[in-house]
Amino acid sequence: MAWLVLLGALLCMLRVGLGTPDSESFLPPAPHNCPYKCVCAADLLSCAGLGLQDVPAVLPAAAADLDLSHNALQSLRPGWLAPLSRLRNLRLGHNELAALGHGVFTNASGLRLLDLSSNALRALGRHDLDGLGALETLLLFNNRLAHLDEHAFHGVSTLSCLYLGYNELASFSFDHLHGLGVTHLHTLDLSFNRLGRISVPQLAALPAFLKNGLYLHNNPLPCDCRLYHLLQRWHQRGLSAVRDFAREYMCLAFKVSASRVRFFEHSRVFENCSAAPARGLERPEEQLHLQVGRSLRLHCNTSVPAVHTVWVSPQHELIVAPGSRDGSIVVLADGSLAIDNVQERHAGVFVCLATGPRLHHNQTHEYNVSVHFPRQEPEAFNTGFTTLLGCAVGLVLVLLYLFAPPCRGCCRRPRAPSPLQELSAQSSVFSPTPPDALSRKASVHKHVVFLEPGRRGLNGRVQLAVAEDFDLCNPVGLRLKAGSESASSTGSEGLMMT
Q: pTM here?
């Protein structure tokens, strides 16, 4: 009976561990408040591509990224974002929204990214974006926007990237940027619109970092001489917004759509333009060259005293008193910028923006700072000078070798040959094959002065030939051969012994 009890206990344990097919614990629990057919994963809520005509009534409060794109939403009710206090990214692209309305985003104070692209928006009202005080990126491209309120972006002063391309805008005020905060904005896309009227002085007054991110291509711009010279200067300065889309900058030559020409390829349209009206439009930036480790101080020079002064670094960091985040840049009490230890990361364009009751909000002053390492000390002698000196010394040594008399003790005259040696020498003249002793003697005392070059092209110049058994103690015996001698006369001379 004991084994039966043990078997029953094992079966009970197995039943508890695996559960029964109809047990509720067999299915995973559903996320709390996750809408039907939506996907909830931690702080991500995706309801994209479900054909929704209305926003789900219940949304999980933990959502920080909400995706409602590719649906059929036609309107948004005020206060619908109240439960989502942690929301940072909201995607509403590819819907059918024709208008926003007041109070739609009043509870989205922490939103950083808002995507409203590819909808049917026709206008943007003054209070449509209220409540988006922390918004950094706004996507409004591929809509039907034809009108922007004068202060449409007044509530999004921290906006850094605004995309308004592929709309129907016929004008845009660069004077006040429709309420945008110019200190943060560094990307403004207005491409593929209907901009036909642009204030050139307003464009020229924009800060350098915004000019580098201002996209105006594929618009029916006027073929204005001042605008042409301004865009040409931006292109020469290498501003990416103009340089990368140079072929897509168009203008109307005769105020009809069929007369579109390319700004940078049809210079004949602007050949009668004088550069005089374009002078003074854009204040040139000051060029500063510094070595690593030096100190730098920049003053915000304005026409009248400013009340508030802010700076923008080459990394698009907004710098206010007391200074930058890393502490390397300090803003002084008079509004000037100071760097005690300049490094490579400080290279680029520093822009000062001054505000005051008698100053325009975008009056700027620009400094282009170049940072380089100290140059190495030059060498004591110039390479060219040392080469010339070496050639001169070599030439003197050659001349001394050829023409200077040898020392008295370094050469000894050979003894007079004995009668037996003289007889042996005379016999060698008549012998067709010289003896081995004479060949060894010639090879030992052979001194090659210069190798004789080919005779072609010498033009009568003197050449030095190989001297067999040349005596260093008697250099006068060296014969010179003229280059103009014929081959027959040279061959008639035979071997010359000294």
A: 0.63
